Amino acid sequence: MKALYTLRNVSVLMIAGGILTGCLDDKHDRITKFEPGVYLGKPDTELSAKQTDTLVRRAKLQSGVVQVTGGGGILAAPSRSSSVRIPSNSAAFFEKLNSRTANQKGP
């Protein structure tokens, strides 16, 4: 019977300790009251030239195309064994192309 009381007392103390631990001041050095339009945090530190260069390089790599990589076109002379057809400048070609585009758009 005495073991049961001891177990109950230890359980109550553990539960009370857990509850009181949750009440600790975990907001130490944090801003808890805000003012609209006013930054109350620490001021930013100045970036070094190396850090700035690293950030610029990362931004360029994440933004998509970094450089012109070339491609086909009239400037490149196609060889006879090429499977790419020669571009056409005729009005009939563009009418046919516009018609195909209109049909692919759907209603």
| Biggest beta sheet summary | none
**Mean pLDDT across all amino acids:** 76
Helix content: 40-55%
**Gap from first CA to last CA:** 83 Å
Order of helices and strands: HHH
Provide the low-confidence segments as ranges. Answer: none
Radius of gyration, in Å, reads 36 Å
Counted by DSSP, the helix tally is 3
How does the overall form come out from the CA principal axes? elongated
Strand content: under 5%
- SS content category: mainly alpha
Please provide the count of β strands: 0
Considering the chains and any ligands shown, give keywords for the structure:
elongated, 46% helix, mainly alpha, 107 residues
Report on this structure.
The chain is 46% helix and 0% strand. The chain is built from three helices and no strands. The chain starts with a helix and ends with a helix. The model has no long low-confidence stretch (mean pLDDT 76). The protein is mainly α and 107 residues long.
